[in-house]
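FAQ: What does a ligand-bound record look like?

Like this one, built around guanosine-5'-diphosphate:
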Amino acid sequence: MFTTLSDRLAATFKNLRGKGRLSEADIDATAREIRIALLEADVALPVVKKFVAAVKERARGEEVSGALNPAQQIVKIVNDELVTILGGETRRLRYAKTAPTVLMLAGLQGAGKTTLAAKLALWLKDQGSSPMLVAADLQRPNAVNQLQINGERVGVKVFAPEPGNGVGDPVAVARAGVAEARRTLHDVVIVDTAGRLGVDAEMMQQAADIRDAVSPDEILFVVDAMVGQDAVNTAQAFLDGVGYDGVVLTKLDGDARGGAALSIASITGKPVMFASNGEKPTDFDVFHPDRMAGRILD
Ligand code: GDP
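The answer part, i.e. the structure of the complex:
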């Protein structure tokens, strides 16, 4: 479907072997190809501009080395810059000094939070933790039930609202859930929160109230990688309204090419920590910036 960036650059540089340094015209041609490739990968325009400027700057300063031809050399520069923007090293989860570690999920409805909650719980179980899920999404009629089913599937306890536990009040449910996790000696508690179809002041306030009630160790912003450029506006709105420590990209099994990852990481400065790539509980992994860079380049 797409011409890969590596192929584009190879074509641009067909006649350049043996040159000691790339000319300004060569660099401009490179910049054009990178720009097109990033826009095809659905990277937001301001991010593309900043990125291309950084690559041009580096390309100007480099000698054409013996080992790599000019195209390979530029691909390497682009790869390095992509990895840097995506956070460099893989960002690991930070656990609380005193259990339980509280993880809060935030994001729009349909982003994949409830599915992700169970995936994350299963992953934590595999890491040797004893996680518990808290169903504090009381907005979507079926969300509590869905979390209970997902939790059961991965063998993780779900704290759901019931009379006396704050039915109808997500903040009370979240607080009671964390207290229950502490009492029952679960070392990680994952709080699922409500989203709406679009950014909404009431939703932000509710998420901020839950945050204040449970003091999460990590707030994870969950975003559908398929929504493309819109993801950037949503990511910024959640950063301003709730704040978060890291990003989880979902639906990477679709034909999203990683543009959302790059745009969000660049604009918010927050690392992508996990990635979801399917509907099964095991379709989930720690996010590796170098692998995503490869995906954008190929
Ligand atoms: P929530 O509203 O944020 O809690 O979103 P859900 O967890 O209910 O997910 C919305 C839809 O996306 C559901 O149909 C999920 O099965 C689906 N979904 C979630 N994560 C993924 C993913 O990584 N890949 C695919 N293909 N579908 C996903």
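Follow-up question: can I read anything off the structure? Yes, for example: The pocket of guanosine-5'-diphosphate is lined by residues 107, 109-115, 140, 195, 250-251, 253, 276-279, 283 (CB under 6 Å).
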